[in-house]
From TrEMBL:
Keywords: Coiled coil, Membrane, Metal-binding, Transmembrane, Transmembrane helix, Zinc, Zinc-finger. PANTHER family: ZINC ION-BINDING PROTEIN. InterPro entries: Znf_GRF. Residues 27-68 form the GRF-type domain. It comes from the Eukaryota. The chain crosses the membrane at residues 137-153. This is GRF-type domain-containing protein. Residues 99-126 form a coiled coil. One of its GO terms (molecular function) is zinc ion binding.
């Protein structure tokens, strides 16, 4: 809120007064702000919102009128929102691709784990077979030595 004392702002003094009531913007004292025009100085011709009672009030409400119309402003906001949505969609696509890659990798790892479990089961079976074969060989060796002793002693 800039102070207007010492600044050269006027509301126009021609028969077609350029002061327009804007129902959307209210000044600090609660009244509907007027659109006024700077009459001299470096900002000459620029429009601003001001209190309708100024300079006969302590209210020093001041706000520049936006160069854009409400439609342009809404279009700009819509464009910003669309841009944000597109950025979010791109990020989501990237996440989806990463998820697909991770799911594929998970599937491959699950297959590898399944294969490894099968290999471990086969190795356990082979170890058990080898253990049985070893016992059978020890038994055969024992019987052959026993037979040898019986034949040798007879």
């Amino acid at each position: 809120m800039a102070s207007r004392k010492g600044n050269s702002y006027t509301s126009g003094s021609s028969s077609t007064n350029k002061r327009v009531v804007n129902a959307k913007i209210r000044c600090d004292c609660g009244r509907e702000a007027l659109i006024k025009t700077v009459r001299n100085g470096p900002n000459m011709g620029m429009k601003f919102y001001g209190c309708p009672l100024w300079p006969d009030t302590q209210c020093e409400f001041f706000k520049w009128v936006n160069e854009h119309t409400d439609l342009e402003e809404q279009q700009m906001k819509l464009l910003e929102k669309d841009t944000i949505i597109l950025e979010i969609e791109v990020e989501q696509k990237i996440r989806d691709e990463k998820i697909k890659k991770l799911q594929l990798k998970k599937g491959n790892l699950e297959e590898e784990l399944k294969d490894m479990k099968n290999e471990v089961f086969q190795m356990k079976s082979e170890i058990m077979d080898c253990s049985r074969n070893e016992k059978n060989l020890y038994m055969a060796l024992f019987i052959s030595w026993l037979l040898f002793v019986v034949v040798y002693l007879s």
